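Box 3.1 A note on notation
Throughout this textbook, protein chains are presented in two layers. The first layer is the amino acid sequence; the second is a token string describing backbone geometry. Keep the layers aligned when reading.
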Amino acid sequence: MDKVKTYQNFIDGKWTAPRSGRYYPDINPADDRDIVGNFPLSDKEDADDAVAAAHRAFAAWSQMLPSEREKCIERFVVLLDQNRQRIGEALCREEGKTLKEAQGEPARGVVECRYFLGEGQRLEGITMPSDRPGVMSIAARVPIGVVAAIAPWNFPFLTPLRKIIPALVTGNTVVFKPAYDTPHCGVLLMELFEKAGLPPGVVNMVIGRGSVMGDAISGHPLVRGITFTGSTSVGRRINTMAAGHFAKVQLEMGGKNPAIVADYRDLDHAAAQIAAAAFAVTGQRCTSISRLIVLREHAEVLEERIAEKMKGYVLGNGMDPKVTMGPVVNGAAGEAIMAYIQSARDAGAVVKLGGRRLTGGAFDRGFYIEPTLITDVTPGMKVAIEEIFGPVLVSIKVDSFDEAMAVANDTEYGLAASLFSDNLGYIYRFQREIETGMAHVNHGTVTDGCMPFGGVKGSGLGAFSKGATNKDFYMTYKVNYIKYLP
């Protein structure tokens, strides 16, 4: 077996060993014999070094012409496009998703990066006539400063791009912390920035445990903005820490996303869309559909059709092109998912399909859970309330559309929701009354790269990411009054 490579932090344009001298192994979730590499267990001093480097670099980078910043970032995007296949293969090995899903991340990243590069030329301000003679009033957008970008493990390449590229385009500098479970994708990202020739300190990366590094970065007084994607509990902690030094936050957190089915003729289409949204990326998406809320008259047929779609999944190592579902990210996550499934059984629900951890042969080298459909679930059950973050879909039967909407909204989360209906009145009410940041009608929870992405309640805080709303987080206004006549 090849010698395992040891990787470093990226601070002030240099690859830098952690102050602690300690490292941890990053293990392929599909094969626990395969060590991706050894990565730094950084500490607060490393975070301080990275923030200081970003702070020093901010003065020159923020004053650079937007068109000049765009040229630097464009070189990165070209390199990203050229390296899509290599990145996809590395991502599949590190995170566990299928090769097709993994290769989709850098491919979509190229598209979204190119969109936001254009935003760099659209940093419009506000010009208003003054009520005083000879005075011009101008509100200009300006960058906020050092931005901490804290990324999740489930989209370890695309999500960082959605944070780092808008920050750079708008004139900010970045301290990036990749997820503990997927640091290699972060290293690949920094290698491309280094090769693109960005000035030292403009982008920095520190690797380590979230409980250590997340706190060190979020609480740093020189960090002016924190963009985070992850659990609601961690987002709540980051928001508290940011408040201590009045840093802006952009929090993308958990979801318990419903799909309501009411008065819809094409149940086969609904089943295909719901299954795809529930089980893509092994159900490890914040936008995964995890609750089917269905009128009782549709329930039996729809559950059967969803079950038929689920039987087509092939589990295994994502590098195998025949595989359509990989393992969950690690053993701890797998044990938690299995505990949720057992809690549903204990509460009287029925595991209609799946519900097992696969074992034997190659399955023993990863944590593979069958796609699972649980029926006869009531709204108060644990599996109906809490985010499971795995390949589990629960079905809740209701007697009316009013009841469906009440159940859908009775959650601390508010990220995404779908409605499948031919009833225009239901569609209108759903779009007006659903308590989510994103609402989908007659399809799953796939989003467009140029549109805002975000949630409400316990799912999001701050300006929505992606699209034109991103600059509302990465920039603030400086209001100028100019007297041009005596």
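The chain has two domains: 9-254+459-480, 257-410+416-448. The two ends are 79 Å apart (CA to CA).
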